[in-house]
Amino acid sequence: MDLLTGFKIFIEKEQLFRPDQSLLLAVSGGVDSVVMAHLFKAAGFRFAIAHCNFQLRGDESVRDESFVATLAKQLDVNFHQVRFDTDAYTESKRVSIQVAARELRYEWLEQTREQGGYSYIVTAHHMQDSVETLLMNLSKGTGIAGLHGILPKQGRLLRPLLFAEKENLLAYAAEHQLPYVEDSSNLTVKYTRNFFRHKVIPVMQEANPGTVTNIGSSIARFREAELLYQEALQRHIKRLVTQKGNTYMIPVMKLQKTVPLQTVAWEIFREYGCTAGQLPQVLELLNSGPGKMVETGSHRIIRDRQWLLITPLAEEQAATIVIEKERGVISTANGILRIKTAERQEHTPIPAAATIACLDKTTLQYPLLLRRWKQGDYFYPLGMRKKKKLSRFFIDQKLSVVQKENIWVLESAKRVVWIVGLRIDDRFKITPQTKELLTIEWEAY
Fold first, then answer.
1. H/E element holding 240?
2. Model pTM?
């Protein structure tokens, strides 16, 4: 099968774009992108050419820019070009030249695509590029997603040459006598990708000349395996993760019995900022007591009695936290609440500590609200029939401004139940008729 036929078949099989859509081709002037532009012309597709000059290789950069401008004229298509001060960008953003070039390139290509009304940006990545990506991912450590190499379609990006090997592209250029330019930086091994291109893959090909083709075929199978993996994973997530407000709840027993535990747990907890290094700590929570927690970059994962609770760190800064019946641990910016329910036994002593609230559960209406106190709040202090403003109570308690700023109140049906860590409201106290207790313990940081 010739390259042009393979090209058309691949576009159709992967459903990359419709023939009536206009595309923006990223062309450097190297053999891959030049052949790609000629294939688009030969296939009769609508396209324009875009070229980035990173001004990193002096005269060579100018030569490439001029070459691609001429190519666009020969193919009779629109030409977009840009010059970047890549060195200045690397210094201001403190990134490597490779990262700077990639960020500048894709940002500009997307702007140009949008302004020009093109449907997609097209790059000339081929099979060996995809194999290099797979090997790089493997060497760094990867999950199944790292095995799919470069994808043919990713958002607004298309790669219609992934079916072709480098040799096919070189042969096509030679057969049709297509001139192209060689980027000298592609020949150096100082960049990671080039190291795999020039040092690793040639050694593998010595052992097996079909290395690139074979890994390329495996990539196609890995992509299909990944679809099955995602499907199975979604079933596990549906079975294990329940959302209540902005809290996610996972039953400890169910997760413990999940097979394969490591994989399912990793895929669930990584969504909440968990790193690979933190995963063992999170799994340790399955065997720990209530109140233990792991803090990720974005969430807290807290061991409750039968649940792992995942709460966003943002909740801790919130002025109001909603407490549903099931919640046993609530984490705030300056402390933790632990909630327990129990039947009242006849001679059960009532804790005297101000950090523990012992309440008659039947007097409470859910959901409870934990919020910062505000001016105008009042309550009936334990042992008193007369209401008192919180602001007055704080003066009596001789609280400092900073202490007052950190006060939380627990509220039920718009009534203050507890000034957390200080005093409960008389209306919710335990009486001789109380059958069910709700005990809340406050641990300040």
1. helix 211-240
2. 0.66
